[in-house]
Amino acid sequence: MKRISIKLYIAALMMFSMGCSKDYLDRTPSDTVQEEELLSTVEGQEIALNGLFRYMYLAGGHDSFGEMAINLALDLRCDDMALHALGHNWFANDYGIEFSRAETHSRPANIWGYYYQLIFQANQIINTIDGVEADEHEKNYVKGQALAIRAYAHHRLVQVFQQTYVGNESAAGIPIKLTAEIQNLPRSPLSEVYTQIEEDYLEALDLLEEKYENEGEDDEEVISVRRKHPSHLGYEAVAGLLSRMYMVKNEWDAAFEYADLAIEKATEKGYYLTPGGSYSSGFNDSYSAGWLWGLTINSAQSTVYASFFSHIDPFAGGYATLGSMKKISNELYGKMSGNDIRRNVYADRDYELDAAGNYIWPTLATSKFRLKNSAWEGDYIMLRMAELYLNRAEAAVHIGDESTARNDVNFLLRNRVVNYQDRTLSGDQLMEEILTQRRIELWGEGHRYFDMMRNKEDLSRDKTHDPGMARIMELPAGDPQWIMQLPQSELDANPAISGADQNPLK
């Protein structure tokens, strides 16, 4: 994997800092900073850290703009999101599944390169920060962020390039990268990849935990570093990501424990479930009390047409407006009751958007995600409180705590359905309700592919999907077409991975 210039960090810093409410970053000009100098101070390490987060929403093309491009590509491979029309053909191959997963296609190369770039940047911090002379709490803050991102990137990668963990523990996963040096590494077994992911998350959690002085006295003071920006990860967000990972492993006690911990710590800090009245506000503000982690993007940082909002906001004047609206499946839409406020972010009929009738908002098309303004400002969602309640509810059923599961799903629905009356479901019906509400609540946020994989669900697309565009309408769980082939560029460059190590095409 190629190393990037340190100037990318500086450029990323300059863009990132424009969106910050506090001027806490050193804006040293890029032509005066060398890599060694940058990473020799905790301030420089934080510059590198901010470059890492900035990279998560940089655009490399009109269908490759970091996290949300990957989320959109994966959601379109599933059942709950449909394309209205091909438009300019962006994401068309992702929707059709088969072509977009081949070793020569740009999508596997984009996902592989993007996450290993995140890992590389994280490793530059992790491998050097212990030697920096600085306040220990400041160092812990930066290192904890980098470890969490390294875990996050490895986890996302391994779920795209291999079948789910349970039942495939010894299957070939991905190379585990723990240094910033160029290395030719083989594919490690899933069990080893997940062990490393778990270790990184747990160490990050320890480093980001709030520490106190004068413990046990009335004048306790927090001496650890609080989260400095919504694009950064807090303790509660890392706990939430851990719950995701344990759900994939079906380690339900741990999944419950960390979802519960995340909810507890987030609630203490003033986070809360996004109220029903805000569900139609556009999902575009990382400062929302319902978001534990988001990527903040202002007008100077916006990638305009090469952005998530361009492809999903029908009112933005981007690709969605030009015809490639994203629609909820009729099957899932029908699972919402008539007084569910979440129905309001989907068209119940065809609408004209302007007096001239130039733009159409078609039936079932979404307006869940909308830009804040005409300057193309809009933040990317990464982790919400709603997911934590759904994680805990699902795990609770598996460990036999149906009372907690019912409380969590009823709490969510009291905030989503007008005049909702609590239900006393149990067993399979309770689990079905939790999984259904997960599909509805988190629609378009990049969860459906990962949920279908870990639950080993068959793909069955309803008539909302046009077979001419979708191409594949049915796909059994475990089929090779669920996962992507390793990119040809990796096979060409890495002698530790041969053609025999490649995922099957079909």
TrEMBL record:
Q: Tell me the keywords, alphabetical order.
A: Cell outer membrane, Membrane, Signal
> Where's the SusD-like N-terminal domain?
103-214
Q: Which CDD domains match?
A: SusD
UniProt cross-references to InterPro entries, sorted A to Z? SusD-like_N (IPR033985), SusD_RagB_dom (IPR012944), TPR-like_helical_dom_sf (IPR011990)
User: What is one GO cellular-component annotation here?
Assistant: cell outer membrane
Q: Which residue numbers delimit the RagB/SusD domain?
A: 372-504
Entry's localization field: Cell outer membrane
Give the similarity note.
Belongs to the SusD family.
The protein depicted here goes by the name: Membrane protein
Q: Which organism is it from?
A: Persicobacter diffluens
